[in-house]
Structure formats: C-alpha cells, structure tokens
Design a protein that fits this description.
Helix content: 40-55%
Low-confidence stretches: 1-13
Radius of gyration: 24 Å
Order of helices and strands: HEHEHEHEHEEHEHHEEHHHHH
Structural class: alpha/beta
Number of helices: 13
Mean pLDDT: 83
Amino acid sequence: MNEAIRPGVHSQAQEGPELSIIVPTFNERDNVTVLYRRLEATLVNVAWEVVFVDDNSPDGTSEVVRALAQQDSRVRCIRRVGRRGLSGACIEGILASSAPYAAVIDADLQHDETQLPKMLLLLASDQADLVVGSRYIEGYKSEGFNKQRAGASALATEVAKKMLRVEIADPMSGFFMVRRDRFEQLAPKLSVHGFKILLDLVASAQGNLRAVEIPYTFGARQHGESKLDSMVALDFLGLVLAKLTNDIVSLRFILFAMVGGIGLVVHLTTLFIALQLIKVPFAEAQAAGAIVAMTTNFILNNFLTYRDQRLKGFGILRGLIMFYIVCSVGLLANVGVAFSVYDQEPIWWLAGLAGALMGVVWNYAMSGLFVWRKK
C-alpha cells in the first residue's frame, strides 16, 4: 500500500478537520496558492480544510484550486455557475464544510491568517460563538485600507449599529470565525445577496450570539482589484431595510420595489412631456409612458436587482419581451384590486396603494419565474 502521504493529511483523513476556512473568490488565481501556503504555515497544529467558493471566474481561479486539491486533500473547490455574490458564496461554503468551526477570509491576502489559531481557541474553549477580526478596537493596524473606503465602512458601521442595534464594534468585517452549529441555526434567515454576511449573521441572531472581537493587521492587496463596486451601498441599504422588517421582505424585493418607484417617476415624466410638450392625445401619451417606464425598469432591474443573474446577448431581448408581458398582466391586477378596494371603501389613496402593492408583488414574482430564471 502506498503510504506516501503527509502525516498531517493522513491523520486528518481519519479524524476529520477541526476548522474549515471558507474563501470566496472571483478572479483570484494569483492569490489562491499564496493563501494556501500561508494557511499551511499557520495551521501546523490544527486539522483543517479550505473551501474555495469560486463564482465561475473567467481567469481560471477554479482550475488553480483544483490543481492544489490534487496535491492536498484538505483543499476543496465549489464552482458556482449562474449565481454570484459574496454572502451567497460564504453561506454555501460554510454549509458544505465538515468541521465544527468555520472561518471566512478573503482571497485578496489582506486579512491576517495568523490570527486563525487564536480565533479557534476562543471558540473551542467555549468563550464565544463568534470571533470577529475587528478594525475598531485597540491593536488594529492597517496597511492597505484607503481613506475613502475606510470612511464609507465607518459610516455604514454606525448606521448598522444604530438602526439594527448591533452591539459588536465591526459588523462590516469580512474576517470572522463561527461555530458551525450556530451558523446552521441562523442560515435560513440569511440573505444570499450582497456583501455583508457578518452584519446579516449578527442582526439575524438578535443578540443571541456570543461574540468576541480581536484586532488584526489589514494588509495591502498584492494582486488584482477590489471586487467591491458602487452597488455595495445599495446592497447595504437593502439589507438594513430587510432586517428592520424582520425579513418579511427580501433584499431583492426591496431593490425591485425601489426600481418600481423610479419607474413611476419616469412614467409620469414621460406622460407630462407627451401631453404638455408634444401635445399627443392622452391614450397615446399614457401608452408611451408605460412603455418607457417598463423599459427603464427592465434595464435597472437587470443591472441592479438581478445583477447576479444578469441577462446578456440575445437573452436581453427575450427578457425584455417577457418583462413587457409580465408587467402588462401586473397592470391588470393593479387596476382590478384597486377597483375592488374602492368599491368596498371609496378612499382613492387606499385603493391606489392596494393596487400598486398588488402590481409590484405580481411583477416581482413573475419576473423571477419567467424573466430572470435561475439556470
């Protein structure tokens, strides 16, 4: 029998890992091997595994990870096709892990992996359910956090702490470790959209998660560019609103409704221009307003609300036609409900609100089924 396997790997295969490190990736092929070597050097006395969750990176990140996995069975790769997002990747990675403790760390090499043993000790000794690498406690150092990003993060942190009553100092951190059993209890409440999985986790726990924060050194990015774009602010706002409603409405629904509000403004603006400036009859002006508004809504929803399932190429035309059909039926539902409510209680604003709510719920549900279908 061939026993040419490292003792640590062989022992781990028998006992199972104590710690799973979850690494969400997108275009990080230059970083994954470096991170793996760092983990190997840091966790010499820990039975561990690392799960890279790759959002189908075009740079071949998953191929590099699979090559590492051929050499070391502690390395695993989850390649996600047709869906994207940091929070969703973290959730899938943790739920697919096999250790009692799971850490989330970025692949950009800016988080301090040398803190992992300390974080593990705090969890294993039952001193906490969650350990957070915090930027807002004494001892934190930064080598790669620019002032603009730091300011935005600080502002978001204050908003989250006040509006969601989150007690930890750094709910926006992307570096943390959690007991897997506690995470599984909270997983059904978490959103797969957005970037702030820790904020979602702590807010969903509603104070029932023992947390300890430790300082660390935030390093400078060595390869690639930050994946945090201008949509992060919108994701954050949506997440806060969702948690304020106790998850009655999802972040995606909130974005869809916000786009619908923009569409209403576009509709009224187009109607005004057509009636007052171009002087066309009301019926034609109303039809023009509806078409312009629906087209605007489709573009914004494809770019914002469903950007993880964004339609491309010929799919855009097919999706636009389906969106017209869905919204047309939604308009009939809107009018029908409004008339029904008005017959019962002749209050115009109440009837209009009921109809509008029915319309947006219908459009949201049907759009998810027929326009932006998951592959």
